[in-house]
């Protein structure tokens, strides 16, 4: 009984330490520039934001979004035979915990009232096979992978834009507030109205070119 009581006290102490650590993480993330940006993107929470910041370090280390996606482990690798596409899968490179966390974030996003869930519902009939017996789509992981890759690209775009903006602020001047995720901008972008994150850039409509006659 004495040993069991000591184990319970140790578990309670560990639980208290975890709560203290979580409180500290929330405080740090909410008060740092990158954290505010990441927290504005659904479904990123304080722990996920802290993990992303710790994994990336400085976004200036990545010249393109594809480099960050590869580092996160979400760079597609295509295999072809002649002119026929056999299959597309993910590269085995990248930070495994970050790769797993992005997938879980994508899965979580599909259950929320957000733009990611709308994209998920739109892609299901396009990328998956409908099973008449189970009344469910097969191959949902393919769609979740697409969303995870788009999340990585959005993380890069917002953090990179903020980094470039801050680099142009003269010493001593107060920097502008960080550019946060905007659901309406995200929706319009998905509908074809591309809007650059760079200031003073007019939006343009992405047109679908006609096929060969």
TrEMBL record:
GO terms for molecular function: DNA binding; transposase activity. Residues 36-117 form the Transposase IS116/IS110/IS902 C-terminal domain. It holds the Pfam family Transposase_20. InterPro entries: Transpos_IS110 (IPR047650), Transposase_20 (IPR003346). One of its GO terms (biological process) is DNA transposition. It comes from the Bacteria. PANTHER family: TRANSPOSASE FOR INSERTION SEQUENCE ELEMENT IS1111A. This is Transposase IS116/IS110/IS902 C-terminal domain-containing protein.
